[in-house]
Specification:
The protein has helices spanning about 10-20, 40-50, 65-75, 110-115, 145-155, 175-180, 200-210; strands at about 5, 25-30, 55-60, 80, 95-105, 125, 160-165, 185, 190-195, 195. By secondary structure, the chain is α/β, with parallel strands linked by helices. The protein has a single domain (about 5-210), classed as TIM Barrel. An 8-stranded parallel beta barrel has the order 1-2-3-4-5-6-7-8. Strands 9-10 form a two-stranded antiparallel ribbon. Helix 1 (about 10-20) packs parallel to helix 7 (about 200-210). The longest helix has 12 residues, at about 200-210. Mean pLDDT is about 90; it is low at about 215-220. Pathway: Amino-acid biosynthesis; L-tryptophan biosynthesis; L-tryptophan from chorismate: step 3/5. It comes from Desulfitobacterium metallireducens DSM 15288.
Amino acid sequence: MTQVKICGIRSLEEARWAVEAGADALGFILIPKSKRYIEPKELQYIIAHLPPSIRKVGVFADEPPDHVASITLQCALDIIQLHGQEDAKLYHKVPAVKIKAYSFRENNLQTLHSEIEQGLIQGILLDSKIEGQFGGTGVSLPWRDLDFQAILTRIKKTKLPVILAGGLNPQNIEEAIQLTHPFAVDVSSGVEQEGRKDRELIFQFIQKVKNLKTNNHNSPKP
């Protein structure tokens, strides 16, 4: 079954909505420039009130490795998501599973493969990109595009879990999964109203994912 990550959580209430709806992971934006940024102290409080079965993901972009490691330990993060131009080998000592974000429009697939071969990352997040924004753009990936499908095939050959992001919402999630068969899906703006998480949209999104039968051949979760 396809896993679900609700990203951009900013309050305990939002986190509980996602948990109650059946989310597998929650994402917290630790990028100060992001409109969904959450202070580490607030994040620490939220995580302390979540069930241990929920995977907690910290999203960073070009932050110093020591800073990332400090927040990872302070907040008891399970996973870190590197969403910038980081050199993954600089983060190998951070005590968490590492996911690397990859934009379809970026020409750095060779670098990504090198990081995979070195065992530096344990998952790949495919996202759309708008200059100056770090995820949550609401822009969908071109799932039917032949170039996109070719890159997706190459990435899946690495056998690492592939997480699909980029403009997902309750209306398009079924088509997106059927065209890409990811290990997991990641949503942020697609379950928001007026810039804040919406309980009903979170529920609708997760139910559509969990009720969809797919032939998902991705590797086990990292």
